[in-house]
Amino acid sequence: MALLLAGLGFCLLGHAEEPARNFYFAGYKIVLIPSDTFRVEVENPDLGIQEMKDGTLSFTLKDASGPMPKDVVRIYTNDVRRISMIYSELIADQPFAVDSLSLSLASGSKGRVNVKTKYLQVSAGAGSRLRVEGETDVFDCTQQGNSKVSTANLKVEKHF
Description:
mainly beta
């Protein structure tokens, strides 16, 4: 179900089936908000393409030229498993509690997340920057291509 609220300038996406747990973003600022009710808000839905494919809810801008990110997506959920992003920014300031979380950043993506997980996997490449706070039992991190993952405020039981 998709509902466009023209007066407010954003689109609400809801799914009658199981809520999405895997996400892909290209050119968006993503605000992750803990919530018992799954909901997605896109400020300017006409700027991009939103689709569910192979279990992943993806958001891709139609025009990838110029400064990024160009639009904002707010995701209200308590269950995210994977976020992959290019030319995007992730903001999750409120503690986000999940069993397992995988974050993949590329092409200058950036962000900050506050987590409480049993397993956290981060892959940062191509000049990406990520600040991770909170706590995790297991932390698996790969940094390549002039990327930086800051974990000064992350409590970790076991590093890989």
